[in-house]
Amino acid sequence: MNWFTNFFSSTLGRKLMMALTGLFLILFLAVHLAGNLQLLKSDGGRAFNVYAHFMTHNPLIVTISVVNFAFIAIHIIWAAILTRRNRAARGPVGYAVTNNSSSLTSRNMGILGTLILVFIVIHLRSFWYETHFGNIPLVDYDGSPVKDLFTVVDVAYTQLWFVVLYVVSMAIVGFHLYHGFGSAFQTLGLNHVKYNPAIRFIGVAFSIVVPVLFALIPILMFLDITIG
């Protein structure tokens, strides 16, 4: 076990953990988006409420959710440690010349990550906390009572400041994904000159499409526009 502890306490080990947890969170975002798109259906919230009830009562999904929260915590802690070590390595003055290969996004991953953390805290307080501890009325679907979580979300997105916060946060998430997607494959040694263009294309597409769709949900709900 000593080699295991030494490896994951090293910079390489932490970067590997960042890559693995990052890819898991990317997968989580895709699944989460698929569920949230149910909010846009013109069924009075039925599809979303049924989806939310399943996600909060299925034992396997609940277990995955716990793992997801753990991975978010690990990802944040590891990112903070790596950022601090990188700054310490540069010294108090910093580099006189910035490496051209280092993008603006990659140089500011710490700041972007901090802003995303703030958004996650607000998001969890507004939705996760209300889901588990709020006084949410029940709605009946074919004899099965479920929490009316659609109304919780719908009310939240009537507030312009919250919609703006969500849209700006999704833009930040997009920049974070743009750098993180490619970095994860590179850290795991999965990059190859033959496949790099495809990995780069998928990374760019994911970092644009997913945040844009997430951002569209509060915008369309604020404008009272439904689809399907």
From TrEMBL:
Species for this entry: Chryseosolibacter histidini
Superkingdom assignment: Bacteria
Classification of source organism: Bacteria, Pseudomonadati, Bacteroidota, Cytophagia, Cytophagales
Gene Ontology CC terms: membrane
Keywords: Membrane, Transmembrane, Transmembrane helix
Protein name per the record: Succinate dehydrogenase cytochrome b subunit
Residues that span the membrane, as ranges: 60-82, 109-128, 160-178, 199-223
